[in-house]
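Lay summary. Proteins are chains of building blocks that fold into shapes, and those shapes determine what they do. In this project we predict the shape from the chain. Here is one chain we studied, written as its sequence of building blocks.
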Amino acid sequence: MARTPSPISRFIRQNPSRQNSSTQIRKIALQSKDVGFNGKSINPNQNQELGRSVNQQFTDITKEIAQIIRKKSKWERTLSSDFPSINFTDPQFFFEVLKHQNNAFLSLKFFQWLHLHSNFVPDQVSCGLLFDSLLEAKACSAAKYFLEISGFDPDVSLLERYICCLCEGGLIQDAFELFKKFKGTEVCPSIATWNSALLGCLSVGRTDLFWRLYDDMIEFGVVADIETVEYLVRAFCSDGQVLKGYELLREVLEKGLVPRNIAFNALISGFCKQENYGRVSELLHMMVAKNCAPDIYTYQEVISGLCKNRMSLEAFRIFNDLNDRGYAPDRVMYTTMIHGLCEIGWLDEARRLWFDMTNKGILPNEYTYNALINGICKNGEFEEAMKVYKEMRDKGYGESTASYNMMISNLCLVEKVNEAFDLSETMQRKGISRDVITYNALIRGFCKEGRIDESKGLFNELLAHGLQPSTLSYIPLIQNLCEVGDMKEAKRMWNDMQNRGLKPKVCDYDHFITALCKHDCLMEAMGWLIDMLKNKLIPQKMTLERLIQHLSQDEKLDDCVLVFDYMLKIGYSVETEICSSLISKLCKGNKLPSEACLDRILERN
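And here is the predicted shape, written in a compact code that computers can read:
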């Protein structure tokens, strides 16, 4: 069965002109017809005074109904019986109520109610007014629903506003589908509409749709403006193609066009991620030369990039320089800098910034508190950290999964696992969801204390709540199981981890091989070593030495020589004791002089 064409499709077929319609819904002045309460027209030859009276009564009733819809709950059940003489299916009645109703959502609700009357057919002017009011209220989902049920064909100006509304509301896919319907027609959206859609794609991280839309825009022959260039630069940066964005910027600057700071900021952020601070410096000088002075957001990108790349001291120098030059850092910049200083152990300077911020009337938020608390914990001042955490909660912050996780992790690090577990129970009582980070911190904490049963219980609880475990959920448990000699359960968990597509680190293999050696499972240890080599993983030197020692003690000299060979091939040096012990074993077994045995080993390399 063929699908009924959508209102948008009908509109595009019926309006082939590229030019926008001059119709402006908001400026329409429609003269009301003389309508009686029963929906019939009044004889124009009747007494004019009677006509004015009837019209006034009609206006009063529509005002009253609009007020009822605003103030009375469940008005839908009684409206028809309260006004039995009103012909609710008359489009003019709907138009009059709409004029007196200043709430787009209530107007839509009234339209839905009228829509239930099978013979109600709204006029296009009324639909235009309602649709326009929904767009004005940024109610893109409601506007989309209205189009679906009303059959209304918006004109070009409304259609473009609808696309912009969808983009602002994050419904990029719906906006993209509308653009696709323009193809093959002579209707072309304005550059402002294209730009709105491009910005919407960037806002939701859909650079795939961004480039498809841009290609369509070029195909339509639309000439990009400086705003389009800004979005192109940002899209390049989002895709990690910062150099292309930079080249585009240079190109438009040579043509005398200067984009807003947002384009420069995107490039600065991109080059900071690449640690290309030469380009960052060049961009800052370029901004000054083009009378596009760097603002606080520009420097925020610089400081944030430096802190993320462990260059907090350089970031701090720039931060202080900004203060000296009269810039006013905001809460985001203070938080970034406090976090960066705490990361390098400059807690006193972080505290100074905290007091400087609060003295200026800038209140810390949850992120600022968390940054300082983490720094205090790293400095070993846990009692002080608890005081700051309590202050944060008293201020209304801290009731989030992230804040609880931060405290739970720090409690586990200082071996206060019981307190951490109590805090996780508090989360549950308050209805704050525990995520895999919460469980991982507790599992690691209990494993650190050798409390493997509690760790396993938490792991099973994690699975029961439908959470997906990570490698960090498994490894502490596997290590504990290895230490107590439960290799069967350790291998079961290891296999389960890999079956979920989780990749262990090299050090995890090392730990497993060492545990197998400790429990005299040497052939299995050799199997794990071979598995590592197949996956192109290089074991630690200490792991290989431990394996040689145990193989030598178990008189598995051929395997010893193989591991010894591998060590030398990858560039590891071998301790004298291990080398002497192995040569002695080989000499004893083969009854050859030590030099001959050593030659045999070295010949292999």
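What the prediction tells us: DSSP finds 33 helices and no strands in the chain.
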